[in-house]
Amino acid sequence: YAGNADNLADVVNDPRYIFIQGNICDAEFVSQTLREYQIDTIVHFAAESHVDRSILGPRQFVETNVMGTFTLLEEARKFWVVESSIPEVAKRFHHVSTDEVFGSLAPHEPAWTEETPYAPNSPYAASKASSDHLVRAYGHTYQLPFTITNCSNNYGPYQFPEKLIPLMILNAIEGKPLPVYGDGQQIRDWLHVQDHCEAIYLVLKKGRVGETYNIGGVNQPANLTIVETICDILDEVHPNTAPHKKLITFVKDRLGHDRRYDIDTKKINNELGWQPRHTLTLGLRDTVLWYLSHLDWVNAIRHKQEFQGWMDANYKAR
User: For the chain: N or C, fewer Cβ within 10 A?
Assistant: First the structure.
């Protein structure tokens, strides 16, 4: 539902770019694509990813995140391992996962490392944990060369408007309430999407096969602090008659809402030399400015019936 071909307008004319639309649960489609284009590397981003959606409709998360991952793994195994159609050195299945597989942290617990036991608390997190285990199992059982990254919360340009940061930016611009779950003191680590992509590319090029790497933005503000910071930025660059903070509205908390996330990135820092380049303050400012200059892109999404129906179902009842 969040896929948007307009997001790829910058690369449409690049000769390396080929767009193929299909379902990752469709084994015939996946098999044909691997063989037609002699695919030697899969970077598996495809997933249902919104926790609230997983609470209201978990089936899609199991189908896409678990069965879709299984289908990709199985067809890659047949093509790469059974048929040995691709040189060994070129093969890589990279799985993009989340820090939510680790559960929730108490206030003074240490950050999650790659060795932290899994304890997923939402249907979304459980579906991603399941897919992580499948990837590892295919590596161990069938010698499918893989790497996994577990990232923290992403933000930045082109993020779907239902997510926290774009939702707050866009509601504030329009003078609508800024819904904050519970007391707003839930803590997340925030990672700029460009930093995330650069880290994944580095793992593909230099990461050790069979290893997992945590990727985080090295900051853990409360959700309320994020919303207040967005309001402060908008007061400066897009002032309203009243401070935007007056729009903050506390609503009924999410079911089973995890309290705190914190991710340890020492492994990717030390082994691969990666560090995030965006501070949260500058990253949020750039993101606010991006949405202000791309309202046509936003409105094209928000006018779709499915999007408005979801927003009504999730927020009006609170």
Answer: C
**Of 48, 75, 99, 264, which one is the catalytic site residue?**
99
Q: Is 228 a catalytic residue?
A: no
Q: Which residue has the tokens 């990752």?
A: 24
Q: Where are the domains of the chain?
A: 5-308
pTM above 0.90, yes or no: yes
C-alpha–C-alpha distance, residues 159 and 185, integer Å: 23
Average pLDDT for residues 171-194, to the nearest whole number? 96
Residue 100 appears among annotated catalytic residues = yes
Which helix (H) or strand (E) segment holds residue 179: the answer is: strand 178-181
pLDDT-derived band of residue 269, with 50, 70 and 90 as boundaries?
A: very high
* Architecture field, domain 5-308: 3-Layer(aba) Sandwich (3.40)
User: What gap in Å lies between CA 1 and CA 221, rounded to an integer?
Assistant: 29
Helix (H, G, I), strand (E, B) or coil at 119: coil
The dihedrals phi and psi of 146, each to the nearest 5 degrees, come to -135, 160
